[in-house]
Amino acid sequence: MKRSDKKRNIRGRKNKRLERAIHGVFLLLGLVTVGCVLLISVYLIISGIPAIREIGLIDFLFGKTWASTAEDPQFGILPFILTSVYGTAGAILIGVPIGFFTAVYLAKVAPARIKSVASSAVSLLAGIPSVVYGLVGMLVLVPAIRNIFNVADGASLLAAIVVLSVMILPSIIKVSLTALEAVPKEYEEASLALGATPVETYFRVSVPAARSGIAASVVLGVGRAIGEAMAVMMVSGNVANMPSLFQSVRFLTTAVAGEMSYAAEGLQRQALFSIALVLFLFIMLINAALNFLLKRKKEG
Length: 300
What we know:
By secondary structure, the chain is an all-alpha fold.
């Protein structure tokens, strides 16, 4: 065997060992991620089930009164559930169209200079801490809502929806922009060659081709909207009312964050873990439903 062949074989064996090592590292990291999710799930179940068993599943999920520190405590979280649903839905209805059309404009229409500036602004928006969003909302948005709509207090569900809409924009824009830029140019050139206008090409060729990435951006936006606590707490009023657009409300996340610091050992603290369990299951169901719809569309 020639010396060059020996060197080639040695190099091939080294490459295979390196590939196996990298594969093992990636497998280990994946198992660690899965393990963390399982540990969180088990911990929330163990911590949250006792309170649900003591309060009663129906009274806990559909009770309209939350008075955890009263002499006769009540632990109904229906206002929190509905507020989280309405707040997330409102943020998605406002944020997704704005983020989607912004991504299409930046990816397909905007000049290079405008695209560069706008992309930098979006990245900056993504890096702003949530407490800063809440502070700006509390000092600017809440008084504006109070003055414009002539209500007693601007800290309301509407303020929370507006803040969440702004907070989910970076995730939607950046992921959708990446997906649209990854669409092969040949698709658009073929569409234009067949006589389609640029706008028709963007929305009938490029957007469907980037559908999975755009859907992933929506999933990220939903997760950000549901899981946000600090900013929402600062602009929503954090009062356990049934949801109303101009009334102070409390979300599932803010219910846990607001009371966990002073919750005494016992049923109150266990009930907060039960709220966290409901929130965790809520997010998992939404992600599972969105993934199911995406797979169904791909198969169709």
